[in-house]
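To whoever is on call:

I kicked off a structure prediction for a single chain this morning and the downstream step that reads the tokens threw a length-mismatch warning. I double-checked the sequence; it's 281 residues and nothing unusual in it as far as I can see. Pasting both halves so you can look.
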Amino acid sequence: MLDILKAILYGIVEGITEWLPISSTGHLILLEKLLPFNGTSKGFFDMFDVVIQLGAILAVVFIYFGKLWPFAFTKKEREKNECGIIKKKTFILWGKILVACIPAAVIGLLFDDFFNEHFYNEISVAVALIVFGIIFILVEKYVVSKGNIKAQNVAEITFMMALEIGIFQILAAAFPGTSRSGATIIGALLIGVSRQAAAEFTFYLAVPVMLGASLLKLVKFGWELSPPELSILLMGFFVAFAVSIVVLRFFIGYIKKHDFKPFGWYRIALGIVVLTVSFFI
């Protein structure tokens, strides 16, 4: 029962931190230090981490299904032309998403084990949290404040912009604690994408990126689970899904009126906490 309660807490943390640019990895490492699972097999947490990420991914699909799914099954004759335009726009959007996925996918496949061995630790995560927190504040202060916006919405993001955003995503693949959403949002802001478009495109980009990374880990770890472990996984999955829906809606509403500076300051504070905990626990 205690592990089920922990799974609920982990799911809540994942659902919140996966979509805000504050690093879900940093939070989960800290939480694992403070509240590890008891009575689970070796390597279970790696599997659990993957499964709750899948729950978060499904929340994006659920909310943005109409924009991400290009096929309409029931359209009246007078709507055929409109339907064709929507399908074309959706396929173009997926083309941009896939282009943005290429850099991180290539680097991840080649160096995933190396990155996990050398950078998946508390110190590296804490440093990434602090460094990118500072970058967020500087980008907001010296870049976004100038108002040089080239893409107000996702449709205005070009294929070249998508590729450039994808290059920034490599940082998240290489350095845990960077935050996938944080890296892509910073990249998008630097090349002139509005805050709202940057966040929305980041959500779309998460679907193939996180799905691919999760499936890669699932292949590595397999599915040999006891009934209690399966219960823990399912609880974390559904909680992460439900919380992600709430957070995604909140975040889009938030950035219409606010900037990303608070997240930068929060990252710096969390990095200091992670460093402190890693030294004393």
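Update from on-call: the warning came from a stale cache, not from the record. Cleared it. Sanity check on the structure: The CA atoms of residues 40 and 133 lie 34 Å apart.
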